[in-house]
Amino acid sequence: LPLIAVCGRPNVGKSTLFNRLTGSRRSIVGDEPGITRDRIYGEIEWQGQDARIVDTGGVVPDDEALIPAEIFRQAQVALEEADAIVMVVDGRTELASPDMELARLLLRGGKPVFLAVNKMDTDAMQVQAENFRRLGFKNVLPISAEHGTGIGDLLDEVFAMLPEPREIETPEVMLTEGDEMAEDEDGPDFSPAPGAVVKPARRLRSHGEYEAKETKVAIIGRPNVGKSTLLNALTGTSRAIVSPIAGTTRDAVDEVVERGGHNFRFVDTAGIRRKGKTKLMAEKLSVIMARKHLEAADVSLLVIDATEGVAALDANIGGYAHESGRSVVIVINKWDLMTKTGPDGMRLFDGKPPADQKVYEQQVRDNLKYLEYAPLLFISAADGKNIESVFKKVELVSRERRKRVTTGQMNKFLEKVDFQKASVPMNKRVRIYYMTQAAVAPPTFVLFTDKDVKMHFSFERFLGNQIRDNFGFIGSPIWFKIKARN
Ligand code: GDP
């Protein structure tokens, strides 16, 4: 089995981390009189992959002066035996010189190394972890061994670098470098403004350590589609707890609604109600707000005015939602106006025949191609129609985005995929060895290939759809990364 070594100076939380990683499967080796108890081994399983783990720092010399020597010895053990090394530091204290010494030794060793910045118990503290980058590690991960946060991310990174015990044979498939390709005809037709990068969602883990009891929801859309009305319907019709919670900025207020044991936190509800003075200002503001709200959310409700259909601005805002990695539910609002008819059987709203949901949905989907994974709902926020289904869908997509597929399941799936159907124009042959899910929220898959290439958009879509057909991930975008093995 591959071996992971944990190093670090005393009191940084190595043992807590070690215990958390190994659970009850930890075995103390050499814990008998006369035998130096200097290494503790355990076993760990992650996403169907097994590894051994060793705590190299079992002996803590009482004498301060001996610490550097001990550190040196630890590093040597790690570098000799391990396939990957995790160095642990205490994120709440200043860097000490033994830390730097150990880091230097480990970084020179040529093995995959990771820095776990421990005791980062809150989100705010996680930022501090960045300070430790100056130790020189490429992989810096904030964790709280005590609370169990960040552990999943750490394991994802570490396991991705371990030698794979078995390699499955997949046919050679074609990936093409995106740059060389003409834009796909079916390609997305939105063009986010320069610098339109929304930070990826904080990764949530299903490591038994974190269970989402709350979903953060952003209500986004252009002016007058009915965002405030929807917010009122969602928070007002519920007779459950509705409590405004002050957010990070002075005027950001969240409202939380509880439904069947699940909390829905509508982020920055003050922002949802904000309106611009002129039409142009209101439109610009709606984009700025959408991006801000997406950053704070897990799931977005993209509200479309049924009487107007998908406008360019809707597509633009939808594009941001898609790129942000948040889950999306498309909400077609004001459906009442599209169906209410007079004595002549024609719509009161504009005298046209009543709209058909199937036909209408197809039109919306044609205009929001890149959101093909998003469930779509018809509602009337003003009449309070179909509001319950909004809660249900949000909860569903929130669960789906945190789903995990094991590497074993992934391998079986990959064997079944008919790559001939990918029909991608080909100018580069790439072999896919295997694929693992490296993260949740959004589900992110790493393809281990023999060459470092950029995945072509349509190949990504092909693979994404195959994954969806097999595993769901309703409402969530699927992200891919390529890791070339040399
Ligand atoms: P926002 O700018 O997106 O927050 O939009 P508002 O919530 O302020 O709604 C804009 C207008 O649409 C208001 O006059 C609402 O009363 C109206 N409206 C919102 N939802 C509905 C609906 O479901 N049906 C109808 N008929 N009107 C609606």
UniProtKB/TrEMBL annotation:
Residues that coordinate or bind GTP 2: 221-228, 268-272, 333-336
GO MF term list: GTP binding; ribosome binding
GO biological process: ribosome biogenesis
EngA-type G domain span: 2-166, 215-402
Designated name of the protein: GTPase Der
Family per record: Belongs to the TRAFAC class TrmE-Era-EngA-EngB-Septin-like GTPase superfamily. EngA (Der) GTPase family.
Full-protein residues shown: 138 to 623 of 628
General function of this protein: GTPase that plays an essential role in the late steps of ribosome biogenesis.
Record text on subunit structure and interactions: Associates with the 50S ribosomal subunit.
UniProt KW keywords: GTP-binding, Nucleotide-binding, Repeat, Ribosome biogenesis
UniProt binding sites for GTP 1: 8-15, 55-59, 118-121
